[in-house]
Amino acid sequence: MRNPLQDQLLKAGLVKKSKVAQVVREQEKQRHGKAPAPASPEQIEAQRLQAERAERDRALAAERNAAAHANELRAQVRQIVETNKIKRDGEIAYRFTDGDRIHSVLVNESLRAQLAGGTLVIARHDQGYELVPRAAAEKIRTRDSTAIVLDHGRADAAAGSGDDDEHYAKFKVPDDLIW
Questions:
Q1: What is the DSSP string of 13-64?
Q2: In the chain, where does DSSP find H-type helix?
Q3: Residue 160 counted as domain residue
Q4: How much is the average pLDDT of 146-171?
Q5: Is residue 29 included in any domain, yes or no?
Q6: Is 6 part of a structural domain of the chain?
Q7: Structural domain of residue 124, as residue ranges?
Q8: CA distances from 14 to 3, 6, 9, 19, 173 (A)
Q9: Rounded to whole angstroms, how far apart are CA atoms 134 and 98?
Q10: Is residue 3 part of a domain?
Q11: What is the DSSP letter of 155?
Q12: CA–CA separation, 59 vs 64, rounded Å?
């Protein structure tokens, strides 16, 4: 299929019929397109480097997101403890273990009874420890279970009945035992 200009040039005798046919064939090839030329080694290397960079960037972004999420959870725990902490007053040292170390907080008799009963929980807060109610402790536990240091109510439910429990059940523990 020739265009009108090619027909005019052919009629005027300025071009040969074979030359017009060759130009038409080249135009058809350009319209339909051929398969692209194979990529050069430099292009392949550039694509590989780009893919590696993209993967490294994705990994760094995932690390940053995880760190930001962890910081956000720590801030939420800090806020929950700050808003729900119980004022501690008293002269009785209530001792508990945190890891392999023994720590103590000063409480009065009613706070000691609530701690022993499991209605109050000791949570880690900045460099110290605070007393929080059980409901706040559950919120803290969903965000960071390591922030809860002492929870007698939870320990009783998790202990279950073992052979040791049956053996020690026959021994009475004094009510005034404070270590």
A1: TSS-HHHHHHHHHHHHHHHH-PPPPPPPHHHHHHHHHHHHHHHHHHHHHHHH
A2: 4-12, 17-32, 41-84, 109-117, 134-143, 152-159, 163-168
A3: yes
A4: 73
A5: no
A6: no
A7: 41-179
A8: 15, 10, 5, 10, 120
A9: 19
A10: no
A11: H
A12: 9
The pLDDT-based confidence of 2 (bands split at 50, 70, 90) is: low
118 conformational bin, left if phi > 0, alpha if psi -120 to 50, beta if neither: left
Instruction: Identify whether the C-beta of residue 137 lies closer than 8 Å to the C-beta of residue 85.
Output: no
Predicted confidence band at 9 (pLDDT cuts at 50, 70, 90)? Answer: confident
Cβ proximity of 130 and 105 under 8 Å: no
The 10s digit of each residue's pLDDT in 95-149 is 999 889 999 999 999 999 999 888 999 999 888 999 999 999 999 999 998 999 9
**Dist CA 151 CA 162 (whole Å):** 20
Q: What is the count of structural domains for the chain? A: 1
Q: Are 122 and 96 in contact (CB under 8 A)?
A: yes
